Each structure stands twice: as structure tokens, then as C-alpha cells.
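User: Some background: our group keeps a shared notebook of sequences we're curious about, and every so often someone picks one and asks for a predicted structure to add to the entry. Today it's my turn. The entry only has the sequence so far, pasted here. Could you supply the structure so I can complete it?
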Amino acid sequence: MHRPDAISGRGAPENRTPTRFGLAVREADGDWLDAREGLDGEPPPLRTTVTVEKPKTIITRNTSPDIGFDRSINPYRGCEHGCIYCFARPTHAFHDLSPGLDFESRLFAKPDAAELLRKELAKPGYKVAPIAIGTNTDPYQPIEAKWEIMRRIVEVLAETRHPLTITTKSDRVLRDIDLLAPMARDNLVAVALSVTSLTPKIHRTLEPRAPAPRKRLAAVKALREAGIPAYVAIAPIIPGITDHELEHIVAAAAQAGAVGVFYIPVRLPYEVAPLFRAWLDEHYPDRAEKVMHIIRSIRSGRDNDPNWFSRMKGAGPWAELLATRFKIACHRHGLDRGKFKLRTDLFVPPQGPQLRLL
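Assistant: Of course. Here's the predicted structure to add to the notebook entry:
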């Protein structure tokens, strides 16, 4: 069931705007499609644009009881990796943009992030806890090569000896080993590389602009050789598409030297669900209904379960089977060790215009 408006090399097969905020649905009409078509009848490549964003603060706080951090930083909005399952896609709706192709092509960058972070860390009474980066959109997505916003953020955290966790799908994280390795020696940083599938055909459609899984596993190995704690996140596991690779990914993580592994079943909040269903119809029409049936079985009969605790693990027989398989695989490869805590007692507030006396 091929969609004529699907663009090769992009994740989302469509670009409808959401209706959650009372916005009119905008879909491509025939005339618009005719204007887009090239000489060969295919739509031209979709170009990435970047808009500068000027926030007043950069640290985002949360009080969710089922995640292990209470603050995070997002250097970018949107993500060019184009992962169809990304639960951050709905955030583009706040800008009257589509969580579909707009999310992966109309990006926002925050070039003042490092200076904003410096100001927030310098505030009297600031209490230290690990800052998580990469929990929404990827800080090492392709545009980071030019903007280097993440690099400058890490520089501030390294200077102030502030604890940091990084989650990414990109081996570009290796660029910053010179900053991360000294932090690791003081137990101030941990990195998680997300590996969803080891199968090239699945990877190319599931997360079309993210580095190949072999590059991510090579990055895990390089980080470990530099003394940096590196984990593998099997996130998400998609029933009927990638779940058969669970044990293989755990084994590959162990071979790369990862210190631990964790997983999350696929989540389909808000506009992600219809985008994901359209992706299934495009790439896996033979099993689309089966996949959605299993997802709903682990999400209390819905496309998505937003409830705390269960949203990260799922519920029901399928979720229990995944948990059992994962536990056995981790035990087999010695990856069932508990997480370790990063230090918070080494923090030194940023130095202002007046030099310290001591």
C-alpha cells in the first residue's frame, strides 16, 4: 500500500497537522502534489531548515516518579534522525507544525544554551543532581556537527564538575570524548546508545537518518575503552517488528563492553499513533494489524498507556514475556548488574566576572 506522498529517506509517511489545539487539518491536495513532483514523478528531496530559538531558561524540570532524573536539557527541537516511533514528535504541534515530516525537517536550535546553563548553575541555592540530555530529541543529531550546541553544554558541565547523563543514537558522541573521559574518572557521566534493530532493512525505514547500529555499538566500545560508562538502550522494542532481536542486541551490547542494558516497549502518544500506523501500512502491510493488536495488548487496550510506571514496561502476558526474556539474556551475558550513581559532591559553581578568592 504505497503512499504517493511518502518521501524516500524520511521516517514519517505523511505531514498532517494535529487537531488537538483546534487547528484545521492540513493535508496535501492533488495540485500541491503535482507541484512537488520531479521529472521522474517522485517528490523532490525534503530539505532541512533550522530556526534559532531564544529561550529564557534551559533546564527543564519534571516530577515524574517513574524516571530517574528530575531535570533535563534539550539543545534542539525536532530531530533529523526521523525515527517513526519517537515519542517527542507531538511537541512540534505546539508550534503549529506537523509531528510528521515537519518534526524531522523543520528544526529549532538553541545556540545560547551553554550561557543559559552557566547562569542557572550560578544561582545561589542551586542544588546539584544529574542533568539528562537526549531524553527528548537527540543532542547529537546531524545538525550538531555545525551548531556544536551540545559540545558547549558539555564544556560547561565539565568545567563545573556537574553530573551528566547522555542518551543518543549517534556515534557523534565520540567527538566529545576529550571532555567526557575526565568527567568519567570522577564518576560524573554515563552515556546510553540506543540500538533498536541490528537488521539494516529494518533500521533504514525505522530510523532512516540515524547512524547504522554497527556504528553505535562501535561507539559503545570506544567509550568503554576511554573509561566512560556506556549502556545500550533497546528503545523501543516493537512487537512483531524488532522483538525477535532482543537477545541478539543484548549479546552485541555485551560484546561491545557495555556496562548495562535497558529496554522500553514502544509508546505511541498522541499524533505518534496515526503516524506509526501509516508507517506500518507502508512498510509492513502484511502484519500491520497484528502489530497494533499486540501493542494495544501491552497498553491496556489502547495505542498508548500514559500511566506512571506501567508506561515504561507495559502490562499483560506480552510485556511479562519480554521482561522474562530480557532478564534471562542479561544474566547470560553478565549485564544484570544494578545501575550506579553519579557523584554530586564535586560541583563547583561557574566563575562569574569577579575571580574567586580561593
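Suggested note for the entry: Residues 26-39 have pLDDT under 50 and may be disordered. The first helix runs from residue 30 to 36.
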